[in-house]
Amino acid sequence: MHILILGAAGMLGRKLAERLARDVTLGGRTVDRLTLVDVVKPTVPAGFAGLCECLAVDLASEGAASGLATRRPELIFHLAAIVSGEAEADLEIGYRVNLDGTRALLDAIRIEGGSGWRPRVVFSSSNAVYGGTVPDVIDDTFVVTPQTSYGTQKAMGEQLLADYSRRGILDGIGLRLPTICVRPGKPNRAASSFFSGIIREPLAGQEAILPVADTLRHWFTSPRSAIGFLIHAATLDLARLGDRPNLNMPGLSATVAEQIEALRRVAGDKAVALIRSEPDPAVERIVSGWARAFDPARARALGFTAETRFDDIIRAHVEDELGGTIA
Amino acid sequence: MHILILGAAGMLGRKLAERLARDVTLGGRTVDRLTLVDVVKPTVPAGFAGLCECLAVDLASEGAASGLATRRPELIFHLAAIVSGEAEADLEIGYRVNLDGTRALLDAIRIEGGSGWRPRVVFSSSNAVYGGTVPDVIDDTFVVTPQTSYGTQKAMGEQLLADYSRRGILDGIGLRLPTICVRPGKPNRAASSFFSGIIREPLAGQEAILPVADTLRHWFTSPRSAIGFLIHAATLDLARLGDRPNLNMPGLSATVAEQIEALRRVAGDKAVALIRSEPDPAVERIVSGWARAFDPARARALGFTAETRFDDIIRAHVEDELGGTIA
């Protein structure tokens, strides 16, 4: 089985490639070929025994997507994106990467396909497609009205994916990922970056900045669960999606204060003392328009699962990233 | 006041230009300049006393939109589109005109604007953004899941319009028009064309083809009401739209059988006898995925109004197109 990962140098892309290398098989078939693509050259996952090609490619550049399509991977994970903060700061780069890149991929499949090649495309969308006036709990039939350019671009990508799937060009499934927490590594330019920072930095004995009020409620899942969603989407019977291939993923609704109390239970007062409040109106403005909680009934019925307690999200980080120990 | 109409050679565009010429003013201001654009050169509306420039322009072609933006119209009606049947038959032309054309317009405004020019953009979207598994009556918060490429392209245009409005690049309002009935003139390549044909042709003493079962329910408004929506949208206080500039327009829900009974009341059995049933699976497939009825509470609260009886829709056609008499 040949799998292409776009955005393979990103946090989720790396973890996904590592998981595939570790699992060896996917849906009962051997993963014998990986094509890993990002704007910076991804690395071969440790222990992968098959053929692995790592490419530095700008998906939106002329001919890039068609070059990938000629390789005819059976499964494509499209995780490549400019994050929310950067897409908000730079309209052009956001639309170029998040919309034009996605469209280039889908069109390359359209043009290359048709003679027995119809790949599955697992698209990472985001709960950021929702925003503005939303109910406390968003159900699966609520209207998508993003309040950021990032959310807009993801919503447009979802529409394209649905149309190209409906036309039989590809087998698409879009996953509206909750905010990933705890993201390992360094802060990024996503406006949601602090949700991880206030857990990750204190667990490593470092100070973290909280740019919003602790009453802010948001929707989370761990990197471990997010990888689980992608793997599940790769093997799910897509006929079960009916005419709506874009799905709200399960997650956990918590306020910042609840995040902090979970941190206190897992790592004690000294970790919590490292969080410093420093309001940032630009971040407040973006995240205040985001969804706070979901009832992802369709995804749950389709077998997608996630953590139900924030303590478990923190423990997943300690186990997966810190070797089980706290600084 | 300088007004640009894109799609000015189309049915709505022509009627809109004629209405503006007749009214002379809009929102208390004199309409002293019209720029009328379409892929074929539009005509100057009868009696218009101001400056009227008629241009044959392909909006999606290189530099076309920016050429129009340099004219800095205060109000833009963007009605230009490839219709549903053609967009379904030809993926490339549909995306080029309906998505790329809209994006080119919005980007041209972004690049030209910023020094005191922020035009109002009234965008004609469509109830075709809804589809698939929908409730009998769709409310204003129901999810948009189009089941045609046309509906997809309109939904994507709406998202762009909302994002560019939110950013302050333009003042956008998107109107999801019901199926316009009775469309004057000849059948077009819209899959919805027969909804008008089965009224229009018999009123003119000609045979009409009905390609679907008469139990099909659909959502209608007259050309007269549609022009009323556009005019109302041009002067409405847009602050009242909040964070959702795209609106379901009012209309009238009727089955094909109810359309036919209204025709019988207005024009008698001899008109109804001219309708010939000839099922067309391609048309059935497209229109069966469309919405059947709406509760457009937001639009009604904002002052948009439409007919409430199908007889009135037929009478509007007889008055506006047939000089008040039936063949």
What does this 3D model show about the protein?
Two copies of one chain form a homodimer. Chain A is an alpha/beta fold and 327 residues long. The first copy, chain A, has a domain at 2-178 and 221-248: Rossmann fold, CATH 3.40.50.720. Chain A has helices at 11-23, 64-69, 84-89, 91-112, 149-166, 193-203, 223-235, 256-267, 269-272, 281-288, 297-301, 310-321, and strands at residues 2-6, 25-26, 29-30, 33-38, 51-56, 75-78, 120-126, 171-177, 179-180, 208-210, 217-221, 246-248, 252-255, 275-277. In chain A, strands 5-4-1-6-7-8-12 form a seven-stranded parallel β-sheet, sandwiched between helices. A three-stranded mixed β-sheet of chain A has the order 9-11-13. A two-stranded antiparallel ribbon of chain A has the order 2-3. In chain A, helix 8 (256-267) packs across helix 12. Chain A is globular. The termini of chain A are far apart. The model of chain A has no long low-confidence stretch (mean pLDDT 96). Chains A, B: InterPro entries: DenD, Epimerase_deHydtase, NAD(P)-bd_dom_sf. Chains A, B: This is SDR family oxidoreductase.
